[in-house]
Design brief:
The chain has one domain: Ferritin (Up-down Bundle), CATH 1.20.1260. It is 70% helix and 0% strand. By secondary structure, it is mainly alpha-helical.
Length: 171
């Protein structure tokens, strides 16, 4: 079967050359780091959504609304991170098995009390910050300003969110 010029037969595999000024080796390493960030962010999203559904107690309304704000932002963030990985020419992880393998955030069994939920979310946001920071050396070496900008934005947001959550734990 002949296809129009430039369209490969379905059984042929072609790889489009990516020439964005970042070597394939650096793009691969950056994407691996961003995949860990994606896994942490998705795990935190799921945990936050779970806590939104299951929070109880005197702070219910405040926490329910706050957690919704947080998981909504995280839902947008995971898309942005995955799209950056794709922009680098790599595949983004997208299964629970991959996220469990790549994430530094542990799953929480059961339904913790509200204050424990807050403390766990602080730990989760701080873990995302550490993961984002760990990617900077290769991003800077490759002069990947787009990924650096993404990382900076994620760090700022998660540090601020962790601070706000920590404030709820103080007497």
């Amino acid at each position: 079967m002949h296809l129009p010029s430039g369209i490969p037969n379905s059984h042929m595999k072609t790889k489009t050359l990516i020439d964005i000024g970042i070597s394939e080796a650096d793009r691969t390493e950056i994407a691996a780091g961003l995949s860990r960030l994606l896994a942490d962010s998705y795990t935190l999203y799921l945990q936050t959504h779970n806590f939104h559904w299951n929070v109880t107690g005197p702070m219910f309304q405040t926490l329910h609304v706050m957690f919704e704000t947080h998981y909504t932002e995280l839902a947008l963030a995971v898309d942005t991170i995955a799209e950056r990985i794709r922009s680098l020419g790599m595949h983004a992880p997208g299964t629970y098995a991959e996220f469990v393998r790549l994430s530094s955030i542990e799953e929480v069994p059961g339904v913790p009390k509200a204050k424990e939920m807050i403390a766990l979310l602080v730990t989760g946001h701080e873990a995302v910050v550490r993961t984002a920071r760990s990617i900077f050396p290769v991003v800077e070496k490759a002069a990947d300003e787009a990924s650096a900008d993404l990382l900076t934005q994620r760090i700022q947001l998660h540090e601020k969110t962790a601070w706000m959550l920590r404030s709820l734990l103080e007497d």
